[in-house]
Amino acid sequence: MGVFASSDDPGSSGHEQVVFCQDKQTGLRAIIAIYSTALGPALGGTRFYPYASEAEALADVLDLSRGMAYKNALAGLDLGGGKAVIWGDPERIKSEALLRAYGRFVESLHGRYYTACDVGTYVADMDVISRETRFVTGRSVAHGGAGDSSVLTAWGVYQGMRAAAEHVWGTPSLAGRTVGVAGLGKVGRHLTGHLIDDGARVVATDVNPQAREWARQTYPQVELVADATALITADIDVYAPCALGGALNDDTVPALRAKVVAGAANNQLAHPGIEKLLAERDVLYAPDYVVNAGGVIQVADEIEGFNFERAKLRATRIYDTTREILQLADAEGVPPAEAADRLAERRMADVGRLRTILLP
Ligand SMILES: NC(=O)c1ccc[n+]([C@@H]2O[C@H](COP(=O)([O-])OP(=O)(O)OC[C@H]3O[C@@H](n4cnc5c(N)ncnc54)[C@H](O)[C@@H]3O)[C@@H](O)[C@H]2O)c1
Predict the structure, then answer these.
(1) Which pLDDT tens digit goes with each residue over 129-182?
(2) Is 222 annotated as belonging to a binding site?
(3) Is 83 a catalytic residue?
(4) 41 Cβ partners below 8 Å, 6+ apart?
(5) Ligand 1: which residue has its CA nearest to atom 42?
(6) 17-68+78-143 maps to which CATH number?
(7) CB of 295 shorter than 6 A to ligand 1
């Protein structure tokens, strides 16, 4: 993906700003990418990862920042899309000085970009970064932050799943349905709780023995299966990928027995075209970036001064957004993933345009 594009279409117009940051002393090499500020300051996490090359780091941050613009738009936030990557092995080079150097670069953008946690960065890191910049979310509760974002991520996934269930079976209740949860990590555990409370039967898997043990202790009624393959071929109504990306691919989709897919994992579609394969198999896919937006909704709330109830109310609206997307998909004869993109682009264009009305 390139930085510049010539089209005026907000869906393909390229990035507004890409900033390379270096501090040789601490070994910091970071790229901050702002895809769009049409709806407000760009918000997206910082990924700290040992990329093989600078080109790989750049491709990732361009891709991720664009994704955040779409996610934030559909989450109803007055926030644009951005993301940052720090190129390096966090186990080896992460230090207070490096994080604070990074924080100074974030501050230098004067609020055009707000950062948050992502792969390789944690709440404690955001607290350190916040010593150098005001433009950071995902801090600890003790520092005025929203804490663990998986709480509302799971709540939002559950709401999106209810909307998808209603679309397929005529009722949002999951009582009596069998849901397959792949990944009993932070989000998968909270989600399992919501499903059990709703009266669903849960079949689950996780590669980590501790996560399996957590399920045995906390919800003995959860049926554990050997791996993700056993899960997708089990007699399940809903498949909830809550582990890594690429869960929906050329091997898994043909084997899937569920009628609905709704889960927390990012980038569930392994490649473009998988959404069509799902539609051909009559599997309703609730787009990942729509249903997993509860986390960004939770941390974004920090910008106003964190209020859990307000953030939860916003995450509950993922139910309405998912419904709208599924209805639009039917009306326009496109897969839900495409309908979601269209709705996000519409909001960026319609609401973003209002900034052309001068408010002196
Ligand atoms: N935490 C959030 O707020 C949030 C927000 C949006 C999206 N997500 C996405 O949701 C997913 C889960 O996030 P999390 O915070 O719960 O992460 P996590 O690391 O706490 O949990 C992931 C779990 O998946 C398990 N796992 C890994 N590979 C597996 C496999 N092949 N089969 C079965 N289980 C496997 C891990 O052992 C772990 O228990 C990730 O893709 C993440 O990017 C999370």
Answers:
(1) 999 999 999 999 999 999 889 999 999 999 999 999 999 999 999 999 999 999
(2) no
(3) yes
(4) 79, 80, 111, 112, 113, 114, 135
(5) 265
(6) 3.40.50.10860
(7) yes
